[in-house]
Amino acid sequence: MTRRKAMSSEKLFPNTWVDRYSDYLYNYTIVRVNDHEVTQDLISETFLAGLKSKDNFKGEASERTWLISILKRKIIDHYRKINSRKGKAEVRMSYNSDEAEGDWLEERVSDPFDKTAEDRLENEELGLAILNCLDKLNDKQATIFKLKTIDNFDTEAICNEFNITASNLWVIIHRARKSMAECLEENWLN
Amino acid sequence: MSLFMKCEEANTICDKTQYKEATLWEKIKLNIHLIWCSFCRKYTRSNAKLTKVMRDSDLKTMPISDKEALKERLQKEMQK
Questions:
Q1: Mutual orientation of helices B24-36 and B7-18 as an angle, nearest 10°?
Q2: Is A105:A63 a contact under the CB 8 Å cutoff?
Q3: Of B8, B43, B44, B54, which to mutate for an interface test with A (greatest number of A Cβ within 10 Å)?
Q4: Alpha carbon of A144 to those of A27, A66, A137, A171, A173: distances in Å?
Q5: Is a pLDDT exceeding 60 seen at residue B66?
Q6: What is the ipTM of this complex?
């Protein structure tokens, strides 16, 4: 977070957006729209909109928070579009987000049978927590850790791609895993 | 091939185990090491938990080809 904070004071760095935020935005969106193509389009629109309105960025929030706020509007627009097409909307925003907690009547009524929604929410929280921790790794560690752990790439393929030896790779993985475990320990590894 | 090894090596084997890439012999050596090394036992425990949490999270990444396309598009837009 410190790296992000230092960089986000008033200035945006659009040429780093894809590397830094696309996985975060991707996970945020896919659980809500459940479709790869749509997710891809929404993120692309978000970045372009961000680029256009970059003068509005005051540096009060982090770059990522700012992009998420644009993305949220894009997702709502997307639901509206479906809504006008079908005459029925299936809105699946996370009510658990900081600003909208408990405002919805449905949210206050607990449904003991709605286990899947709860599981999904917990998964999402965990997913975003992991992405936050990944954010604290350096770029190379984060990329290699993701390739190995999330995308299940072969050790050999990664070594070729990054031109490193297998023992280099395991050193990088070890550092990444150690930082990740430390970062997630308090809330998720107990 | 000694049965005794340093913690550094034990940790690497432990990491490999998380990706099912440790050999049987390595696993045997690791388990012997863990009998007397509480430090590595602790690491092994948290490492296994991390693996489980990563699996449970069902996290996805944006495919690399999509990222590249997106970068190109942004780049173009920035030059306008």
A1: 130
A2: no
A3: B54
A4: 18, 27, 11, 11, 7
A5: yes
A6: 0.88
Task: Report which residue type is found at A131.
Answer: L
Answer CATH for A1-93 from 3.30.390, 3.30.870, 1.10.8, 1.10.1740: 1.10.1740
Residues A176 and A141 sit within 8 Å (Cβ to Cβ)? yes
- Tokens of residue A101, six digits: 């907690």
Residues of chain B positioned with their CB less than 8 A from the CB of A130: 53-54, 57, 59
Confidence of residue A87 (pLDDT cuts 50, 70, 90): low
**Considering only CB atoms, which chain B residues are within 8 Å of A174?**
11-12, 15
Q: Pull the structure tokens for residue B63.
A: 């495919």
Q: What is the pTM of this model?
A: 0.75
- Token pair for B33: 């090491």
**Per-domain residue ranges of chain B:** 7-79
As a whole number, mean pLDDT of residues A31-46 equals 93
Cα–Cα distance, B14 to B43 (Å, whole number):
8
Chain-centroid distance of CA A170 in Å reads 26
- Please list every residue in chain B whose beta carbon sits closer than 8 Å to the beta carbon of residue A159: none
Select from B13, B44, B59 the residue whose CB has the most chain A CBs within 10 Å, as the one to mutate to test that interface.
B59
Please state, in angstroms and rounded to a whole number, the distance separating the CA atoms of residues A183 and A141. Answer: 15
Q: What is the pLDDT of residues A96-113, one digit of tens each?
A: 555 544 555 554 455 555
| Token reading at A168 | 């280099």
Residues of chain A positioned with their CB less than 8 A from the CB of B7: none
| A17, A177, A189: residue with CB nearest B15 | A177
Alpha carbon distance A151, A168 (integer Å): 19
Residue of A nearest to B46 (CA): A181
